[in-house]
Design brief:
heterodimer; A: alpha+beta; 2 helices; elongated; B: 2 helices; 9% helix
């Protein structure tokens, strides 16, 4: 979805809906929502319930998705004036799990969950089942990496962090070319 | 013939997209000008003047040039169903393997920075050679078909106009 300001109104170019000034377009398919829905598709994600955004409680079986913005990797122009931008969205997924000090069985289960999630993301991306964020879905790449324990407390709560990156391409074509 | 002037603001450089090569994907009488160069980041027309320089026994140097042979390369050209020019070239080269047709391609050079802004300068080369030099690409990438164009045929000069909404281009031959 692309939202632009035009004469005090917000125009949703994809749906053609014009929203009066004063009311904000509710993004139905933002990158954040797309990522949240994607993570929720992981077969073992239901244990966490709904993913919180920018928040993770220290209660076992909860999780939070932390977006860390857009990075413009490369910008190029072709001889017809079309500009191609290679972007990257970065997210961190924090999952809160039970892990008592010295509980090797629990720690193993948690680590296996983290590894399984990363492999699932890779498979979804390679097989083209991951959501599209740009104009060239076939060349997009989503990775989930560096999953590791982030913190653990004596009360039996551990937080695991996984870095998720989305590389995608956007084209801005010159009108009337 | 009067000299053309540039219609761009003084002191400013001119954007590359003000120089566009079009391929006629219609007919000579009713041309449809389709731009070449989508996703091509760098392409220049190379002028070969066939120059020669001689020095006589008195030490006088004389140089000569011929009309230029102009070639332009587009590399990489990625196949795209929306790119009418590429689709036409693929059909003639890959599907039909028709060298006669490829040596008689109608091309138009739009110099949108020269002449008046409403009727900028254009050159038409009705018998140009369009030569794909390959078809393929790396695994996981895109199908690419690099193209060399050698401008040819009886050159016509005139003006071009471009519809700002549709991008439709019209060439009007100078009287």
């Amino acid at each position: 979805m692309r939202i632009d300001v035009d004469g005090g109104e917000f125009n949703d170019y994809e749906s053609g809906v014009v929203i009066d000034g004063g009311s904000f377009a509710e993004p139905a398919d933002t990158a954040l929502e797309a990522m949240r829905a994607f993570v929720a598709r992981f077969p073992y994600a239901e244990v966490f319930g709904d993913l919180a955004i920018d928040y993770a409680d220290r209660i076992p079986d909860t999780a939070g998705l932390f977006p860390s913005g857009l990075v413009e990797v490369r910008r190029t122009g072709d001889v017809l004036g079309t500009v191609t931008v290679e972007n990257q969205y970065n997210f961190a997924l924090y999952t809160v799990m039970s892990k008592a000090p010295g509980d090797d069985a629990g720690a193993t289960l948690n680590a296996e969950w983290v590894q399984a999630f990363q492999e699932w993301v890779q498979e979804q991306s390679v097989t083209g089942q991951a959501p599209a964020f740009g104009d060239e879905p076939r060349t997009e790449r989503i990775t989930a990496q560096n999953g590791a324990i982030y913190s653990a407390d004596p009360e039996g709560v551990a937080v695991y962090a996984i870095q998720i990156s989305v590389s995608f391409t956007k084209h801005y074509e010159k009108k009337g070319w | 013939m009067a000299e053309e002037t540039f219609n761009t603001p003084g002191g400013q450089t001119i954007a590359r997209e003000q120089l566009v090569l079009y391929l006629n994907t219609g007919t000579y009488a009713s041309p449809t000008w389709s731009p070449l160069g989508k996703r091509v980041e760098d392409s220049s027309a190379e002028y070969d003047w066939g120059e020669s320089t001689e020095q006589d026994v008195l030490g006088v140097i004389r140089s000569s040039m011929k009309k230029p042979v102009i070639t332009q390369s587009f590399d990489p050209c990625k196949l795209d169903s929306d790119d009418s020019a590429i689709v036409r070239v693929w059909n003639l080269a890959v599907h039909d393997q028709n060298p006669q047709a490829l040596c008689n391609m109608d091309v138009l050079v739009g110099h949108f920075y020269a002449g008046s802004s409403s009727a900028p300068f254009g050159e038409r080369y009705p018998s140009s050679m369009v030569r794909p030099t390959g078809l393929g690409g790396e695994g996981g990438g895109n199908i690419e078909m690099p193209i060399d164009v050698t401008y040819g045929g009886e050159r016509e000069i005139g003006t071009v106009s471009r519809n700002a909404e549709t991008g439709a281009v019209t060439f009007t031959k100078a009287a």
